[in-house]
Design a protein that fits this description.
The chain contains two helices and six strands. By secondary structure, the chain is of the alpha+beta class. The strands form two sheets. The chain has a four-stranded antiparallel sheet with strand order 1-2-3-4, with no helix packed on it. The chain has a two-stranded antiparallel ribbon with strand order 5-6. It is elongated. The relative contact order is 0.15.
């Protein structure tokens, strides 16, 4: 498995990036940033992962804010898994550039 560290601008480790089976980068976020240059770096504690999407992450050592963003490949993989009705809704939303849902139907994703 291909793993590499994800750092803030001051080189504090915020998590690990791994590639899933399809080569899509996913972030495994640490609970606390780790200063690897310290004499005795703190123990790593994983809080959440894998993340595929977009979120801001604050380094709790230096207060730097880093943005984890979805790649085009990851987005294509997510869209490729949508059902036809959801693809149509996405197409309509993207063509209109609107932020609100096209239909009032409740998502069944949590129940499938």
């Amino acid at each position: 498995m291909d793993l590499r560290q994800w750092h803030c601008k001051n080189e504090h480790a915020l998590g690990m990036i791994r590639l899933n089976g399809g080569g899509i980068p996913q972030l495994m976020l640490y609970r606390h940033a780790v200063d690897l240059s310290a004499e005795n770096p703190a123990e790593v504690d994983l809080i959440i992962g894998p993340l595929v999407g977009r979120m801001s992450v604050r380094c709790d050592i230096c207060d730097d804010v880093c943005m984890w963003e979805i790649t085009v490949d990851a987005l294509a993989e997510l869209i490729g898994g949508l059902r036809q009705e959801h693809l149509k809704q996405l197409e309509i939303r993207l063509s209109k550039g609107q932020d609100k849902p096209v239909s009032k139907h409740r998502s069944r994703a949590a129940f499938e």
